[in-house]
Amino acid sequence: MEENLLKIFKLADMLNEKQSKIYAEIEYTADNKKKLQISIRAKDTYRYIEKCEVQLANNPLLKWNNIIELFESYIGGVSDE
Fold first, then answer.
1. What angle do CA 45, 81, 65 make, to 5 degrees?
2. What is the pTM of this model?
3. Burial group, residue 81, by CB count within 10 angstroms (0-12, 13-18, 19+)
4. How does pLDDT run along the chain (81 residues), one tens digit per residue?
5. Do 73 and 16 touch, CB atoms closer than 8 A?
6. C-alpha 31: how far from its chain's center?
7. Secondary structure element (H or E) that encloses residue 50, with its range
8. Where are the chain's structural domains?
């Protein structure tokens, strides 16, 4: 899990650097639910474009690759219109 989180953090930084209209936002709440919220937002209006909320305590089989692929598609410019 740590390796995937590190990759997501790096991709979030790349997204902000390579895209002029969107950025990534990552929030983690370390309570009993261990909630991880990953969002892609518009820089000008701060509206949510994509939002994923995961309860890590209840979902040990989380598909990290889906989140990584989502970030990579936005970094590639698919949705920076």
1. 90
2. 0.76
3. exposed
4. 788 889 999 999 999 888 889 999 999 999 888 888 999 999 999 999 999 888 887 665 567 888 888 888 888 765 444
5. no
6. 20
7. strand 48-55
8. 2-75
